[in-house]
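Sample entry (418 residues):
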Amino acid sequence: MKLAPFYVLVSLLSLSSAVVRYDNYTLYKLSPKTSDDLKLLQNLQRSKEYKLDFWRDPDRVGVPISVLVSPEEKYNFENIISKSNVEFQVLNSNIQEQIDKESRVNKLPSIQQSNLTWDRYYDLEHINNWLKKLAKDHPGKVTLIKGGISFEKRDILGVKVSFGKQKGRRSVWLDSLIHAREWISGSTTTFILNEILHSKEPAITAMAESYDWYIFPAINPDGFVYSHTEDRLWRKTRSDYGTGCKGTDANRNWGYKWNELGASNNPCDRLYAGPYAFSEIETKSLSEYMSKVANKILLYISFHSYGQYILLPYGHTRDHLDNYDGAYKLAKRAAKSLAVRYGTKYRVGTIAEEMGFITGSSLDWYKKNHQIPFAYIYELRDQDTFKLPEDQIIPNCLEVLDSLVTLLKGADTLYKNY
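Predicted structure, serialized as tokens:
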């Protein structure tokens, strides 16, 4: 009997009221060494016989990928991989155990709902309450802003932080959680925001006070809520087009080279680009807000996980376009700074070079449409999974903050020659 693809099964489960569980689902790390290895993995990913969740697309020889496999398919999967001599290892034999540990740390008393400590992952309510408290505690410096709205009528909340009104002042834009299950990305933006406001380190305070900041921790609020309440591995939005499968990959829905490469027309696929560009109210409304302030933005960063990359535009070509040379050199310096504290290594390159051909991303749209001088995606820790253990949250955030200081130190100088 042929089994439904993984993404169909999970999408159908998500339509019910039951919480999706992943008991005895195994996470594998696969290392394609040859073109034949890569072709096999690509065929498995496209196959309708197996329910496999590829956490990264197999696009290059020598680049490991992680795949989540149900207990029903474990024997078949290992048999196929072993016969083909594809190198693999088991990263986690029961992913639900790790999900359960995360769930426990989110059960906090109401008194703590407006405080973040970055030793655990927080849900949307906690994050939004904290943003509101910051605006209340720092009047005139922190302004609560609504960057857009979601399909389920949630506000896309963020803050603008400003230490002054100097003429010609430039801005920095940070966002995260466009993919709901990438929880470490939201922790990173909130940590940086907290440091901007409270750090006593001279390099950080100088950076903070030199720019206006637009920071949006959760730009896919519906999906993020759903990842906490129903399905920890949910990635997409929660829009409903009556297809039987909900949601669109919000980072394939932007209006530059929409749905040309690295995306899907299948509403049940995790890479579904939507029925048309900006079909998602989240991407449409947020892009409209950003367009109002884009002329002052010096640096744009969208935080994702995982893989440990600093990515530059574009995803449709491996050609080096716009101000690639300067932006690349700056990113290399940032990656070097990031590695100093804990030795964490990040690769630097375009989306197409490092992740394969992908179109419809927010990074490419903002860069192309608004010519933002320096625009990057960070794929955060670690190299095998987006489910980063809680004890790595603060180390991850500290090293990323180090790199941000380096980025902004060099950006002003390079901008004069842009």
